[in-house]
Amino acid sequence: MPFGFTPIFRIEQEGIDISDRFNDRLIAIDVRHSAGGGDSDTVEITLDDRDWKIAKPTVGRKLEIYLGYKEVGLAQQNVYEIKRVEFSGPPRSIKITGTSVEMIGGLKEPKVREFEGKTLGEIVEALAASGGVKALVEQGLGEKLVPFLNQAGQSSLHVLQELERRYGAISKFENGRLIFIPRDKNETVSGFTLPTLLLRPEHLAKWSVWHDKRGDFSSARAAYVDPNTHQPVWIEEENPRPVTDEEGNVARFPYRFAQPFQTEVEARAAVSGMIHRLNRSLGEINVTLSKGDPWIRGNQLTLIGGMREGINGSYTTEVVEHSYRKDRGLLTTILGKPTGGPDPYPNGADTDAQVLMAPQVGQTLGRKLDDDKAYGPLATRGATAPTSPSTPPPSTPDPNLP
């Protein structure tokens, strides 16, 4: 997207800017943002170890990574804990791998406990406490009542993933906190609406899209056991997206849960979550932007317009990768899935421009956010971060890297 912009980075350790230590040594920074599913955000930093004067990086230290452009500002990516250090050659190099899941050990430990009559928010908070962190749960999800949940020798991470599937949510670790938010809702945990990104052919360097009908079901059905009669009672939720047969006629292909649920509340949550998962399995889009835009995140609604039928449409970003290279600057790739519910933009790129963010050629999403004050706190996210690590490269190798 941006032309004539100067790519920059910033690396902080415990609040101290250490970017100047990397200027003469940095080969690459690769950041990966995921939209839940048990995956954490990750970073890989590759350093030139040509004369073996870099001190051995310390596993367990935390690094905060920013990427951006000198003319726009910096977008904070996440806080990562160094999990692995790899030395290789020739050529001599060091690869530092970090992850946002800093408490993974506690979350992987099997536990036996029951949650009865708790809200979803209370359960997620208890699971997060297993890893020693606080949870931030979207209000609507947090207020849902869970009649009974049995953690029978399972890890807290496994239970979180099951709750994701059941309630159509995303759980991920960001800046040392567990975030639990609805999938496809395009909001932050505080309820702030993220902008929908509109991408046209001029924004894309490369793209591919595939479609599949294996998850094309007209509805989802599940049973729960009536507490009085002890007989199964079936409920059904229709798919908001029309399902057709090979001849284009409206068809009925219901998905059916094999085992009954204990309560009606659990059954209804299950069918709703299944509809969203089935719809998201119907296709995938992979795009590489013309120029990198590190303000784009996972679970962000993206509208593709100005292309052909089969490509145009609404997608939710599943995985976003930002790569910084000293020799080529910033690169952004996006993997997106169809939205799980009704198409939020049935009119496509003709949707009222007030609800879309469409960077022009020469803009990044960060510049657009900064110009459009209507988006409040998000508008200054890129601009308020410290700007350029302008300290010139050291004349001699710095041995004090993390």
List the helices and strands and how they pair.
Blueprint: E1 7-13, E2 16-17, E3 26-34, E4 42-48, E5 62-69, E6 73-88, E7 93-99, H1 104-108, E8 110-119, H2 120-130, E9 135-137, H3 139-142, E10 145-155, H4 156-167, E11 169-174, E12 177-182, E13 196-199, E14 204-211, E15 219-225, E16 232-238, E17 254-256, H5 264-280, E18 283-289, E19 301-304, E20 313-325, E21 329-338, E22 356-357, H6 365-371, H7 381-384
Parallel strand pairs: 9-12, 13-19, 13-22, 15-17
Antiparallel strand pairs: 1-2, 1-5, 3-4, 3-20, 4-7, 5-6, 6-7, 8-10, 11-12, 14-18, 15-16, 18-21, 19-20, 20-21
What this model shows, in words?
By secondary structure, this protein is mostly beta strands. Among the domains are: 7-99, no CATH class; 104-174, Phage tail protein beta-alpha-beta fold; 219-280. Helices cover 15% and strands 39% of the residues. It has 7 helices and 22 strands. It has helices at residues 104-108, 120-130, 139-142, 156-167, 264-280, 365-371, 381-384; strands at residues 7-13, 16-17, 26-34, 42-48, 62-69, 73-88, 93-99, 110-119, 135-137, 145-155, 169-174, 177-182, 196-199, 204-211, 219-225, 232-238, 254-256, 283-289, 301-304, 313-325, 329-338, 356-357. Strands 1, 2, 3, 4, 5, 6, 7, 13, 14, 18, 19, 20, 21 and 22 form a 14-stranded mixed β-sheet that branches. Strands 9-12-11 form a 3-stranded mixed β-sheet. It has a 3-stranded mixed β-sheet with strand order 16-15-17, covered by helices on one side. β20 (313-325) and β21 form a beta hairpin. α2 (120-130) packs antiparallel against α4. The chain is globular. It starts with 6 loop residues before the first strand and ends in an 18-residue tail after the last helix. Residues 371-399 have low confidence and may be disordered.
